[in-house]
Amino acid sequence: MHPSLRTATAAAALALAFAAPPVRAEEPGQGGTAHQGGTVVVTYKDDIATLDPAVGYDWQNWSMINSLFSRLMDYRPGTAELVPSLADGYDVSPDGKTYTFRLHPGVKFTNGREIVAGDVKYSIERAVNPKTQGPGAGFFHSIVGADKMTDGSAQMMPGIEAVDDHTVRFHLVQPDATFLNVLALDFASAVPKEAVDAANGDFGKHPVGSGAFMLKDWTIGQKLTFARNPDYFKARPNLDGFTVEIGQEPLVNILRLQKGEIDIAGDGIPPAEYLKMKNDPAMAGTIVDRGQLETSYITINTTLKPFDDLRVRQALNMAINKERIIRIINGRATPATQVLPPLMPGYDKDYAGYPYDVAKAKALLKEAGVPDGFTTTLYAMNADPNPRIAQAIQQDLAAVGIKAEIKAEAQAQVIEAGGTKASAPLIWSGGMGWIADFPDPSDFYGPILGCGGATQGGWNWTWLCDKGYEAEATKADAMSEPSQKDARYAVWRGLFTKIMTESAPWVPVFNERRVVAKSKRMGGPDEIYIDPTEVIDYPSIFIKG
Amino acid sequence: MALTLLKRLAGAALILLGVAAVTFLLLYGLPADPAAMIAGRSATAASIAAVRHQLGLDLPLPEQFWRYLAGLAHGDLGRSYIQRTAVGTLIAARLPATLVLMVCGIGVEVALGLTLGVLAAVRRDRALDRAVMTLSFVGVSAPQFIVALLLLYVFAAQLGWLPMSGYGTPAHAVLPALTLGLLGAGWYARMVRSAMVDVLDRDYVRTARAKGLSAGRVVLRHALPNALLPIVAMIGIDVGQFMGGVVVVEAVYGWPGIGQLAFQAIQQVDVPIIMGVTLVSALAVVLGNLLADLAAPLLDPRIRAR
């Protein structure tokens, strides 16, 4: 093992440049001085599915799991800046294929046992093991042995090595510029094997971690109570605890918020009420409305006629009136020009995308040999507002002569249709759209536009698989040196712009903003209520002093 | 009597088996792959296949059904795809809330429905009768969602007399029970009225009046018991319906019952939960009807004699 070129002090250099200024929990934010103590009530309509970090993967449980467990890497609150967390520091070999982490000494699970390197190895292997049935397995693909573990032919991964109790080493198949981001995912959280075994298949309801909070009580269908972890190894969270109440309608929760019964309405404001509340002086200071790493789009199945013709796909891009669609959701989004959302590194500011031009769209269809249009099918999820958006798309397509039949179905059914080759010609992604797993442009390529996702059950519903694009993506991901960061983003920027100009497999429609409503006593800047890498940063939020 | 009961129980078991088979087939036929959904966005063909194998979804359909039935025989309803918790645990946790809502809802609808129905029948074709019938018509036809939100807005948000939503204290149950009860009371009032109108014209009632009994005694002691039979059958049906969960009311008031569980499971195509809730509510319908049938002879000696 060569002495490292990069150390933990390089972490800051590796940190991603991001629009939002760093905010630390201990620092006074613009919303008042960080105050210690107190408990708050958070509400959601739907049940919390699970708190198992190897399984949980939705925008409700992601933040809760994040606050219950620790990982080797984390993000500075409110930012996309990576910092070592459970690790005190790390070394990377010159070839970028070996990462060695030194664990912070003396960190304990809430069952009292100290975390050792073997726990990290066990936890990641568990996340990849098909027996766990976790949705995060694919993220660890660059670790040696992940492929054999995934297909069930191996029970452990030689690429994760517990060198001694306080040192864990990862061997990668190839350099991976996003590897530290992967280790900051909830899926990489450390869990104690004895607690997983004791839970008998239901660790998600009996989680034991080493995070800022611990789960005190879970009354199924009603509420979850979280309390501060007294032995937490970092600066303690601001709150003494929080309660998550579930099952209530978003509108009811807004009324309760106005009465001061609750502090955070996690579902935000129902779209129909949004404008009214936004303009209501009584609601001033309670609405957090921020961009997120999200793009909503129409996928075009490039293997189906006539969508195999680039001109038809370009015509579709010019036929859609994005401004009108955004009015349907009361302006809670900005029109999208490209695959990446504006907050993502690699976003191409100079690329304006396809203009809304019905005449040009018709001309392109004529050129492609379908001057009189054709009939096709547009899939959409059946939850409001997606059927209404699908209708708007249907009307836009009709204006250029394309007759689209709408199939509005449950999410799982749309996903099934999209992931079956030559099945769904067009899909409106709303409700299933792509929110980045981590703030890196590569996350918008592999699963949704790359060859890897163009498989039965995959998420590349365009079924585009271009060897040239693959080569460029591989090249970009091998640029794992911190000094190559900007060059790497430039490669991604070029690739995504090329995908839109030369392939146009999507109609990027809008970048949706997230809305959360909070009571007036809640302090801190907006970015800890809608964090770029999680939704609510529970350890950072506080009650104003 | 014992033989009848046995026959009914055997019939009930057959009905449940049929419900299980039909539900299983319907859910199996859904064009949605649970394995792909569980394996998530980063899935590969290999990881989806591995999950499918774990869940036993790669087995032939009859074997899958047989396995499900074998589990059922041991009281095992399987595990939720999304939550990974045993379906039995999830249903058991929500059963008390559904039972409470059922009892309160039926209480409100019977109390209101009987009172209004009797009053309307006694004051037939007069202003009170028309007012009750109009009210019950509104109660039956008003969308529950609107009634629920209206009650919530007036009594919880504006007046602040009752909690907005949730579960736990008697106060929490008032608005959900009232919402449910108003709808049911409309039906009950109409039924009681027509049954009472029928009974009040009978000879024995005239005889009772002729004997000089007070009007109240005639109505309550002589007429009402004879008008009750259809009501008891209806309560039996309600028991079944309410056990399936009252989705709208549970959703608006955040009532943690089985309906809410079913609603979420349908959204997520969480097949084991949908199966479990369907079976539990089928069981409740069967039991509710059985109870109504058993109660009938206690109320009406004529049935006992048959």
From TrEMBL, chain A:
CDD domains in the record: PBP2_NikA_DppA_OppA_like (cd00995)
SUPFAM superfamilies: Periplasmic binding protein-like II
Localization per Swiss-Prot or TrEMBL: Periplasm
Keyword Magnesium: no
Molecular-function annotations in GO: peptide transmembrane transporter activity
Species whose genome carries this gene: Lichenibacterium ramalinae
Protein name in the entry: ABC transporter substrate-binding protein
Domain Solute-binding protein family: 81-455
Keyword set, alphabetical order: Signal
Family assignment from sequence similarity: Belongs to the bacterial solute-binding protein 5 family.
Automatic annotation (TrEMBL), chain B:
Topology with respect to the bilayer: Multi-pass membrane protein
Compartments, as annotated in UniProt: Cell membrane
Pfam families the record matches: BPD_transp_1, BPD_transp_1_N
Secretion signal, residue range per the UniProt entry: none
All residue ranges annotated as the ABC transmembrane type-1 domain in the record: 95-296
Keywords per UniProt: Cell membrane, Membrane, Transmembrane, Transmembrane helix, Transport
Listed GO CC annotations: plasma membrane
GO BP terms, alphabetized: transmembrane transport
TM region positions: 99-122, 134-155, 167-189, 227-253, 273-296
Broad class of where this protein is predominantly found: membrane
Family: Belongs to the binding-protein-dependent transport system permease family.
Protein name: ABC transporter permease
Taxon lineage: Bacteria, Pseudomonadati, Pseudomonadota, Alphaproteobacteria, Hyphomicrobiales
